[in-house]
Every structure is written in structure tokens, then in C-alpha cells.
Design goal:
This protein has ten helices and 17 strands. By secondary structure, the chain is α/β, with parallel strands linked by helices. α1 packs across α9, α5 runs antiparallel to α10 and α8 packs across α10.
Length: 384
């Protein structure tokens, strides 16, 4: 079995999730490649103990990411840092010849994303992908199969989104995701948006234009030091896009929501496709359920399909059992390593977000900012 030795830059929540995935790799009996954590990096060195206690393969700990990138044992890097560091860290990793899995949005703004894309173009031997785990849900993989089979007929409408409610608490202290200098002007779109775009972009449904309504609902927050400070990023975003189906050339509406203040929604990702032949709806609120309507004349009846552990990459878990968040992270990393090892994803919808798809998201989010500022529908740029 091929072993890919990884460095992790950013040893917070998602860094720990990836490390945990590497320890569970035996869960994937048909994989011919696996990750091994050999180096970790973070300015907060207090996080190192958990990694060193659980992963004896780690031979390097550092608070300087350049030291990690200089380590010849490191073949690939996972980077989970605030958005304002993406351009510097991602381009340095790519130029160092390391394969990269980076967190969304792949740059704090469109210009920083362009710099990352240029580094990829100039270093074609590196394999680069963006993190997004929710489409690896069993039900959403089934929707992907339906898209591939053209089961929906003419697309009538697509709806997708990612909703949180934690910022409804006005006493919650401000963090970097609520500060423009660290999170960027996209606000909730930059932090949550690629998740809502993932399936739409993988299907080849490219938005032509956008009309956006953005909301900054809670304009001040405590700073944790006894002060009240401005909170200037967008809490919620609602986008309406005219989107083209490349198979038919017809256009359809795509509604997109990213919300940090969505009452009652703890961590809800949803995806809906309505078509003339079939329709499908999914939400993580009922992660084991796929709703399907097949129209053949007569009554139009929504059916409930009880999904099990039907994953893109075979797991030892029985197919009758439900899937969970840690399973989705495992599947996403299997997708990354499978494509790194084989040169192509196993199927269209079992691949991670590509750099080109992040560039499209930046064109969309930049146009959304312009749309809200002008109260007009904005045409998207066709390329970088």
C-alpha cells in the first residue's frame, strides 16, 4: 500500500478531524493508498500534545510553516487556517512541490484566489483540492447518480444551502470568522459557500448571473475582554442565480443560502433538484432520508427512501447503518487520496472540489457583493 506522508498546518478542529481519519483508515478495506501524519504546525503550540499523544508517526512539530514545507519527508499538506493566510500558505505549499488539501474559500478574495490558481498553473505536478465533505452523504451520492443518468429530465429549479444558528446568540464573543480582516468581505459566503456550491458545480451547472440579498443582522459583539466591538461581516446571504444546464442549453433558477443566523438550524446542509421527470430533496436534518418524486403521469407522490451506509468508497460499516459527520470526512479524504494515486476521481461526484471550482465560487461571491451594493442583477465573469 502506498503511504502519503502528511503535514498539517493548523491544528484546530479540522486538523484533528483529519488526524482522526488517518487513524481510522482501516475502515476502508479497498483503498490502496493511505495517509500518515509526520509533521504538525501551529502558532498555538498547546495543541501539539493531543497530536503527539495519539500519533507516534509525528517526527516534527513547529510553529513555523516554512519549516514544515522544508521537510523532505512531507509529501502532502492539509492547511486549515483563517482566510487571510490562504494566499501566502497555499502558494508557498504549491511552490514547495507539496500536494495540497486546503480549506475553503481558497483565498480571502478573488485576487488572492487568482494568485493561488497561478501557482497551480506554474507547478502542474502538484495535486490540489479544496475541502467539502457534505456531498459524500449516501443520499447525495445517489442524487449524483441520478444527475449522471439524466433522470431529472429538464431541470426546473435547484436549491442548496448551509445554515447555522450559533450566531443568533448576541452575547457570543466575536471570533475571526466575524472580522473582515481575517474572514474577508464575503462573510458567510466565504466560510460556508463552497459547501452550497459543490454539487451544483460538479454537475456542470454554471451560474450566468446573480441577484443577492446580504444581511448584517448583529452589528456589535463582545470581544471577550469586556468591550463591545463592531461586527461587520455578512451574517446571512441569499442568492438567486440564472443557471445553464449544459446538456440541454436551457436555463433554470438556482437559489443559494448561507446563513449563520438561521433560527433552529444547528448545522444544516441541504440540496434539492426539481425536474420534469424526477425530483429529489435532501437535508442533513434527516441524514438517512432521501425524498424522491418520479413523474410518469397521474398522481405526483413523494417517496421516502431510507438510505444506509452506501458510500463512494467501500467501508467496513454495514450498509444498513446510518452515516455521520466523521464518515463524511473519511470519505472526502478517501476521494483526495484516490485521485492523487489514480489521476482521476472514481466517479464524477466522488471527487473533491477542484481549484477551478473555487475560482468559479469567487466569481460568484464577488458578483454577489456587487449585486447587493447596486441592487441589480450582475452577470458573472466567464473566466479568470
Amino acid at each position: 500500500m502506498r503511504i502519503v506522508k502528511f503535514g498539517i498546518i493548523g491544528t484546530g478542529l479540522m486538523g484533528k478531524e483529519f488526524a482522526s481519519v488517518s487513524a481510522r483508515w482501516c475502515h476502508l478495506p479497498e483503498m490502496n493508498v493511505r495517509p500518515e501524519i509526520v509533521s504538525i504546525c501551529d502558532k498555538n503550540t498547546e495543541t501539539f500534545h493531543w497530536f503527539q499523544s495519539n500519533f507516534k508517526t509525528i517526527t516534527q512539530v513547529t510553529d513555523d510553516y516554512k519549516e514544515l514545507l522544508s521537510n523532505p519527508d512531507v509529501e502532502a499538506v492539509y492547511i486549515a487556517v483563517p482566510h487571510h493566510l490562504h494566499e501566502e500558505f497555499y502558494t508557498a505549499t504549491i511552490k514547495a512541490g507539496k500536494h495540497l488539501m486546503g480549506e475553503k474559500p481558497f483565498g480571502i478574495d478573488k485576487e488572492s484566489n487568482k494568485s493561488i490558481m497561478l501557482a497551480i498553473k506554474e507547478n502542474p505536478e502538484t495535486f490540489v483540492r479544496c475541502s467539502s465533505q457534505f456531498p459524500f452523504t449516501s443520499a447525495v451520492q445517489r442524487i449524483g447518480e441520478m444527475i449522471e443518468a439524466d433522470a431529472f429530465g429538464e431541470i426546473i429549479e435547484v436549491n442548496s444551502g448551509f445554515l447555522h444558528s450559533s450566531d443568533l446568540d448576541q452575547d457570543k464573543s466575536i471570533n475571526w470568522k466575524r472580522m473582515i480582516q481575517y474572514n474577508g468581505e464575503y462573510g458567510c459566503m466565504g466560510d460556508l459557500g463552497i459547501h452550497a456550491c459543490h454539487m451544483v458545480f460538479k454537475a456542470g451547472w454554471v451560474p450566468l448571473n446573480v441577484r443577492a440579498v446580504l444581511s448584517n443582522i448583529i452589528k456589535q459583539r463582545p470581544d471577550g475582554k469586556g468591550n463591545i466591538v463592531p461586527c461587520e461581516t455578512w451574517d446571512n446571504a441569499m442568492l438567486l442565480c440564472e443557471t445553464r444546464n449544459p446538456k440541454s442549453g436551457q436555463t433554470f433558477p438556482w437559489t443559494f443560502k448561507t446563513q449563520r443566523i438561521a433560527p433552529g438550524e444547528k448545522n444544516t446542509w441541504y440540496f434539492e433538484v426539481l425536474g420534469t421527470k424526477s425530483s429529489a430533496k435532501f437535508s442533513t436534518k434527516q441524514i438517512n432520508t432521501l425524498n424522491v418524486l418520479e413523474y410518469k403521469g397521474g398522481n405526483q407522490i413523494w417517496q421516502i427512501v431510507d438510505m444506509g451506509h452506501e458510500t463512494a468508497f467501500k467501508s467496513i460499516t454495514g450498509e444498513i447503518f446510518e452515516i455521520g459527520f466523521s464518515d463524511l470526512i473519511l470519505q472526502m479524504w478517501a476521494a483526495f487520496l484516490y485521485e492523487l494515486d489514480n489521476g482521476n476521481p472514481e466517479t464524477r461526484f466522488s471527487g473533491c472540489v477542484t481549484p477551478e471550482e473555487t475560482a468559479l465560487s469567487h466569481r460568484l461571491f464577488t458578483a454577489a457583493l456587487e449585486s447587493y451594493a447596486s441592487a441589480e442583477t450582475i452577470e458573472l465573469e466567464t473566466g479568470q
